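Hey, quick one: can you model this chain's 3D structure?
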Amino acid sequence: MAASSSQGINTLLEAEREAAKIVQKAKQYRIQRLKDARSEANKEIEDLKAQKNLEYQNFVAQHSGASDASLGIVDQETDAKIAEIQSAFAENKDIATEKLLGAIKRVEAKPHINVRV
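Sure thing. Here's the predicted structure for all 117 residues.
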């Protein structure tokens, strides 16, 4: 009986070793699958980022043209307004100078309204 019980124990030990190997392989497989899943998720995230960045660049390119055109219009209007102001200055500078000199030359000496006699 000792031989059959030691043979049974050896069989059980061998089965236990095999089970441990199977469990270890399952753990390694699970760890590898997690790594692969993370890698795939990171790749998908990078692809999505690149796609959204491209969409944003296209959006900016489409809409910046409109702002460039409006900036050109604003620049033209500003230049026209500056030219108008400069021409008004050129026309009226002599009149303004004469009025200023007239006010300086014509001084009326009278006491201030708050002065008491």
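One thing worth noting: The radius of gyration is 47 Å.
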